[in-house]
Amino acid sequence: MSDILRQVDEDLRKDRLLSIWRSYRVYIAGSILIILIVLSGYQYHLFSTKTKNEVIVEDYIQAINSTDIDISINRLVELDKSANSYIVGLAKLKRAELYFTSGKNVQAINLLKSISSDDSLDQVIRDLALYKYLMVQLDVIEKDLYFEIIDSQNLSESKFKYLFKELRALKHLIHGEKINSLEVFESIILDENSPMNVKIRAEKFKKISK
Question: What are the residue ranges of helices labelled H in 65-160?
Answer without folding.
Answer: 69-78, 85-101, 105-116, 123-136, 143-151
